[in-house]
Specification:
EC 2.7.1.67; about 450 residues; alpha+beta; 1-phosphatidylinositol 4-kinase; three-stranded antiparallel β-sheet; ATP binding
Length: about 450
């Protein structure tokens, strides 16, 4: 399959997408030049995601508990702490998680600050001392105003650690990753979006207000583990686990899949080849608002170069990016449309690449930018999208793109030639499609995203 043919497929598939809006540079300009306070949030106001949810959704599940003050006890000094589940998604695993945390709060167990990481996070324990969850308030993210570790100073809605993800919006992406991990394929722990109130949460504002602070936070089931992927070589990891996590990272364009957010659990007393179970966590830097430069720790692991199993191919073939888009709009209505477009694009890319027999390593290289001579070059995927955009700018309809034998005259051929010269990754598309099932989703031109 030639690059030109691939670009034709992309341009017809993405017919209604404005790829100019996917430029990281353009996004940063928009974010730094917001008119007035349209997208910035006042420090003492609830996050917009709570305000945009209908009342029936915000109060779908609420657990408010009164904690008795006792000067001789070690329980929370607050008079009232609350926990609201801010999503219509009330799967049994999520319901159980929220109930357990609510019971723990009712028993007076304080949130325990997590020392590691740049953002504010809290372990939540059961009364017997077992860790049951990790909470991450959105106003304590790195660079947010209530960050407890000195990485603060910006308002919610401004560019964050990753320019294509705004401060205060990583918390939305944590439950999004769980929602999109259909059937627990990659093993993302149950994750919810909640509203907390507890005096233990950090506040950098001056004053001595002792009333509980209301905060939006992601709440994720704590997973007992022995280490993380940074503590050992990948030889102990199973091919299936690496592929499953990689497929999720490709779909969500994970900008921060480092070894520290892949937990490792023993399946036997001693580690053998493929004996370790991998659990992916920390998905706050997924679903950027633009095509960006992802980081995939697994990119050069040997497992990433092994072809997908029939199980993985079947899973990918059944993915429907448009249903996933509607799922996010319904469950997490504050996820921005630009992030949903990135999900759709990356899922379609994953499906097409899998159909043509590409390995996980091939896909990762196509999505990753290269640095040559100190300069960062666009990834092959970004270049392909720009070629597709050029086709759209030339007014090619779905029909005449397919029927025309001379569409190359309407394309920036030099740009396409440069893509062939500079990137080896897309050359795998020159091969014939691998035998497999066709993509199970309608053409993009029939959808409005």
């Amino acid at each position: 399959m030639s690059i030109k043919t691939l670009c034709t497929e992309i341009s017809t598939t993405f017919l209604v997408v404005d790829f100019c809006s996917l430029s990281s540079a353009n996004l940063k300009n928009v974010m730094y030049n917001l008119p007035g306070q349209t997208n910035l949030l006042e420090i003492n106001q609830p996050l917009a995601c709570a305000a945009t949810l209908p009342a029936s959704t915000r109060r779908l599940f609420k657990m408010a508990v009164a904690v008795d003050q006792d000067s001789s006890s070690t329980t929370s000094p607050s008079s009232v702490s609350t926990l609201d589940h801010l999503s219509v998604h009330d799967a049994p695993q999520i319901h159980a998680l929220v109930v357990e945390v609510a019971i723990a709060m009712a028993s007076g167990v304080n949130p325990e600050p997590v020392a590691s990481g740049l953002g504010g996070a809290y372990f939540l324990r059961a009364k017997n001392g077992d860790r049951i969850a990790v909470a991450k308030p959105v106003d304590e993210e790195p660079l947010a105003f209530n960050n407890p570790k000195g990485y603060n100073g910006r308002m919610l809605g401004q560019p964050g650690m990753k320019g294509s993800i705004r401060i205060g919006e990583t918390g939305l992406r944590e439950p999004a990753a769980y929602l999109l991990d259909h059937g627990g394929f990659a093993g993302v722990p149950p994750t919810a979006l909640v509203e907390f109130s507890h005096v233990q949460f950090n506040s950098n504002s001056s004053g001595s207000n002792s009333s509980p602070l209301f905060k939006i936070a992601s709440l994720q089931r704590f997973v007992d583990h022995d280490s993380d992927a940074g503590d050992m070589g990948p030889s102990t990891f199973s091919v299936a686990d690496v592929h499953h996590i990689g497929i999720l990272d490709i779909r969500l364009m994970n900008l921060d899949r480092h070894a520290g957010n892949i937990l490792v659990r023993k399946q036997n007393e001693s580690y053998g080849r493929g004996d370790a179970e991998l659990v992916p966590i920390d998905h706050g830097y997924c679903l950027p608002e633009s095509l960006d430069d992802p980081y995939f720790e697994w990119l050069h692991w040997p497992q990433a170069s092994i072809p997908f199993s029939e199980t993985a191919v079947e899973y990918v073939s059944c993915l429907n990016p448009y249903k996933d888009a509607e799922l996010l709009r319904t469950e997490l209505p504050s996820i921005r449309e630009s992030s949903i477009r990135v999900l759709v694009i990356c899922t379609i890319f994953l499906k097409q690449a899998t159909a043509y027999g590409l390995s996980l390593a091939d896909m990762g290289e196509i999505m990753t930018r290269e640095i040559n001579g100190g300069e960062e070059n666009w990834s092959a995927l970004e270049n392909l999208c720009m070629i597709a955009k050029a086709r759209l700018n030339n007014g090619l309809s779905d029909d005449n793109v397919i029927k025309s034998d001379h569409v190359e005259e309407d394309i920036d051929v030099s740009h396409e030639d440069r893509l062939n010269q500079e990137s080896d990754a897309p050359r795998v598309f020159h091969n014939s499609p691998a035998k497999g099932k066709p993509s199970k989703f309608p053409r993009f031109s029939l959808m409005i995203v």
